[in-house]
UniProtKB/TrEMBL annotation:
Keywords: Repeat, TPR repeat. PANTHER family: LIPOPOLYSACCHARIDE ASSEMBLY PROTEIN B, TPR REPEAT-CONTAINING PROTEIN PA4667. The keyword Hydrolase does not apply. The keyword GTP-binding does not apply. TPR repeats lie at residues 40-73, 74-107, 108-141, 142-175, 210-243. This is Tetratricopeptide repeat protein. It holds the Pfam family TPR_16.
């Protein structure tokens, strides 16, 4: 009977949490601690409530209590690292996640979060190593390919960036931003025809994507295809863009005749 009451009370607490009544949920979770003060999930949930309420010091305290009881709770490591990240305590986040990976070495999520902290800290070589390890554990994790592509793009290794963006496109073919970023990598790699091809795909996926039209105008003009450049610049002008930019594009169109 007591176990049933516990489960009912836990369900009530989770319902409050899902409704974003974090104070109410926290009160219920704390009542449950009176019945089971060695339950790491309760400490984690209370930490989440404090975090959502902006009380990060208390959130950190409860996340640490959860990890003291169970030092392999992946979710809690990520929750605590997220606090450190938002407070720009990047080294604390890195140290925490490195320790977590030592304990739970086969978890791709921990490695991926660590990679993103490395990226934020501009430790790109470390980020590449971490992302490669994510893909070893989860070869179909295209989010890791995306992050790798962005890192390689930042480093100027456009061939590697393109390879990773193309890998993402094996899984997602209906996202204009992926085609656009792939186009930017091809453009930076002086492969203008492939850049144009990907930009055309971006606006085929979403014909209300202004950046695709603008970039097409630029690349067609750079290639000497002035009529095509005019067509896409004129389409770009139909979007709600700043007046100053409209005037700049109109000046280009005037020069193109």
């Amino acid at each position: 009977m007591e176990e049933k009451n516990f489960d009912t009370q836990l369900e009530s607490a989770m319902t409050l949490f899902k409704k974003r009544d974090y104070e109410g949920a926290m009160e219920e979770f704390k009542k449950l601690l009176d019945k089971d003060n060695k339950n790491p999930h309760l400490y984690n949930n209370i930490g989440l409530c404090y975090s959502h309420l902006g009380q990060t010091t208390m959130a950190e305290e409860y996340f640490k209590k959860a990890l003291f009881i169970d030092d392999k709770m992946v979710e809690t490591y990520i929750n605590l690292a997220d606090i450190y990240y938002k407070e720009n305590r990047l080294w604390d986040a890195i140290d925490l996640l490195q320790g977590a990976i030592a304990l739970v070495s086969d978890n791709a999520a921990l490695r991926h979060y660590l990679a993103r902290i490395y990226i934020e800290d501009k430790r790109y070589d470390d980020a590449i190593d971490a992302l490669d390890s994510v893909l070893e554990l989860a070869p179909k994790n295209y989010d890791a390919n995306w992050d790798l592509g962005m890192v390689y793009f930042e480093l100027g290794d456009y061939d590697s960036a393109i390879a990773n963006f193309e890998e993402v496109l094996n899984y997602i073919e209906d996202n204009e931003l992926i085609f656009y970023q792939t186009a930017l990598a091809y453009e930076a790699n002086d492969e203008i025809d492939k850049a144009i091809s990907n930009l055309l795909k971006s606006i085929a996926v979403n014909d209300k994507f202004p950046l695709g039209y603008k970039r097409l105008g630029m690349l067609f003009m750079a290639r000497g295809d002035m009529e095509d450049a005019k067509e896409y610049y004129e389409e770009y002008l139909k979007f709600d863009i700043p007046q100053e930019e409209k005037e700049q594009i109109q000046n280009i169109l005037n020069r193109l005749g």
